[in-house]
Design a protein that fits this description.
Length: about 270
């Protein structure tokens, strides 16, 4: 393909399913050479045609280093892989929270650090962090997940100015509710006889219903690719869950009122 992007190489983490697979497919369609990651590339159930799969376990520092070495020069990095976690704050096991931050934040940060020097040297690069609208609209019983996605956005916001003089653009994409089947893969922590049981399940039922009726992974992927191909990309993109309306409300109303609206949308009073 003789397109301007034919010479670009992209790495998409968590490309075995969901948003990552959709992003990888969209980039292939647009002429990129695409590497996708999975913890077990040989076991990817429905590989995306045209994507070369690499092994990556973001919880393992050696695996992150090996992936960066295997992929070589990369023009585009989409940090998409992550874990979804929920549970009452006081009942979240410390090791589970640490694992979540290793996967959702520290692994992505280290991978970005390893690939940035090449982008800077070539005077071109794009780094996209796939976050969550929950980072902007926190929800009870999702504290660890909310915090991890807010941390990822914080890194991106501070990094942007550092690398922009070298032609490297950094953006965060925050999807709202997305129908990817993540409800079945979410890790949950709730103690036996927990005083939070009833309210937690109320929140979870609403969350699952919202995700079942959410936007497609393809819709998110098109937003990610729009960020990749913008020159320069905007710092922030939100998609799904009536993003234009809810972010307008966030600007117009007190923070406390917005948080109450988020809670009520999930059955909490």
């Amino acid at each position: 393909m003789n397109s301007p992007t034919a010479r670009r190489t992209a790495l998409v983490t968590g490309a075995s399913s969901g948003i990552g697979a959709a992003v990888a497919a969209e980039l292939v369609r647009r002429g990129y050479r695409v590497y996708g990651t999975s913890r077990k590339p040989e076991s990817v159930a429905d590989p995306v045609p045209g994507v070369e799969y690499l092994s990556l376990d973001l919880a393992d520092g050696a695996s992150v280093e090996a992936c960066a070495g295997a992929v070589g020069d990369v023009d585009v990095l989409v940090n998409n892989a992550g874990e979804s976690q929920s549970g009452p704050f006081e009942e979240l096991p410390a090791d589970a929270v640490e694992r979540l931050f290793q996967v959702n934040v520290f692994g992505a940060v280290r991978l970005t650090q390893l690939l940035l020097p090449g982008m800077r040297a070539r005077r071109y690069g794009r780094v996209v962090m796939v976050g969550s609208m929950l980072a902007s609209f926190p929800l009870a019983y999702r504290s660890s997940y909310v915090a991890s996605k807010a941390a990822l956005k914080g890194f991106a916001d501070a990094l942007r100015r550092e690398v922009s003089p070298y032609g490297v653009g950094v953006a965060t994409v925050e999807p709202g509710s997305v129908n990817t089947g993540i409800s079945e893969r979410r890790t949950q922590y709730l103690g036996d006889g927990s005083p939070y049981t009833d309210e937690y399940h109320t929140m979870l039922d609403a969350l699952n219903a919202n995700e079942a009726g959410g936007i497609s992974a393809g819709t998110v992927a098109r937003t990610v690719v729009r960020a990749v191909e913008a020159d320069p990309p905007r710092p922030f993109y939100a998609v799904g869950s009536n993003a234009p309306v809810v972010f307008a409300l966030r600007r117009l109303f007190p923070r406390s009122a917005v948080l109450k609206l988020v809670a009520r949308r999930h059955g909490l009073r």
